[in-house]
Records
---
Amino acid sequence: MKKILILGLIAASAIAWFSATRPTQDTAKLETTDAQSNIQTSELSPAAKTGETYFNAKCSACHGLNATGTENGPPLIHKIYEPNHHGDESFQRAAAFGVQSHHWPFGNMPPVQGINRAEVAKIIRYIREVQKTHGIY
């Protein structure tokens, strides 16, 4: 009986913690809005500028201009997407296979059609340079 009570308390604590730490739609919008007002891309390398062009063509409809997010997708210029948490290969896999929603309440991301690994690598370069400029890592 004591073991069941302890397991129940552990399960209830885990559920409460997960519910409290999960971002809400309002939180995602607030963080996106804050990011949008400060993004600068003027000092990009040539490879990152090419990546910005690919990003604007294939990603910005959901992730916003300058990767600051929209009501349809999260900002990528955000601590969650720093290299130690979402490495470059995770961006490659997201483009190729899509992503099941796990950080934000935007729903699942479908695969990106009509883009190859080399183009995604340039998009990653663009995202990483902008992240670095803004102190994400």
---
Amino acid sequence: MKATPTATERETILIVDDTPANLDILVGMLRGAYRLRVATDGQGALELAAAVSPDLILLDIMMPGLDGFAACRRLKAEQDLRDVPAIFVSALAETRQKVRALAEGGADYVTKPFQPEEVEARVATHLRLRRLQRELEEHNAHLEGLVRERTRDLLKANEEVTCWPGPDDLPDFTTRSAGDTEASVVAQELY
């Protein structure tokens, strides 16, 4: 059995639906495992998402004013929100609606009426993928820092090597002085 995370460890899910009954169902399914925030229209979703930086968004398609497709496009246009997975939730079950939802930036699509096990599994999967994505980004940033550090070290070492004396600066050992000749003769006599 999985332990319930503390409130500070829980991921935040933004649920967006204009139908109170649907909100109640989704909140009932996910309460306790996640921090939940609720918006009842597309514009409210944009404002709340900017304020709370959710880890995942459940987004209805058919809403008055700014529909789910438009809301998703605008969310994905925001630098801080573009990587937040949006799962569309809708009574629209046609393939073309599902394809459009994915084309608009959605990560997944769940049809109404909701099946609790399916919703919970999809939410858990996309949150896990988001955590892994963040870990990968952090690891890449760490590796990039190491590469920059090693590059600086190599450039510094290269500067030191290029400052060493060149062949023209070394003594010429091909010409012998009188002392060198005398030392050579002594060495030969010893052996």
---
Amino acid sequence: MSEHAPDPGSASESTAPDPAEPARWSVRRRLQVGGGAIGLVAIVVAVVLMRPPSAYADIADCGELFTEELLTEVHLEEPGVSVEENDPPGPGLGSEQNRYCVDAELGQFTADIYFHSPDTRSDRYEELQERITENRGRAEGSAALDEQDRLAELDDPPRYVATEIEDIDAGEGGFAAVYEAQEEPDTPSLDTGEAEAVSTFARAEFRTRNIYVRISYLEASDERRGSSMLGTITVTRLAEALEARIDETSTKDSV
């Protein structure tokens, strides 16, 4: 045999495929496909999480919202508590419907409930969220000016100044504040029509989907010079219970 004849083994070694190669390709392929699927799922989940919750399609009336059970839950089960629906005292702030629920007998609380179009979901309820941010900002601003004794510098100082502000577990951006009069006002109490000095009151505000809520609470007349803590606790309980009641009684928009 010629010494230049090719080695039979060299040809087979150079051309035979490595049996391990297809396995490595298969594993790599599966990893690529699996990784792509996981990435797609992550994107879908992120999109779903970013979408705001469905809007409410309606709002119940005051009688359905402030049930005897709810009033008992927040320790307002006194025989004199009677919640009625009155005409709103002011504009609806762009809302489609406005509920004005009042404790007509004792005059201890009012609830302004603003129902906005379900279409506000398209911009993630931005306008309503901005309103609660602005209202909290005003409360914090008045509190800061009061602490610095700078209210007298204002041309038109606020009649009431926030003295305590805290977050509450109601809706988005919910907060409660205690407001004190800068001078003794002689104004009618909440819907009793009788003139009396309202020196301090507690208020809670929150947004739940396309509904904006503002609740004001006064202590009983013989306690209004007392601790503001009870007022804050009560208005917070009212806000949290009302949010749950709104969710129970309102229909979710299907869009």
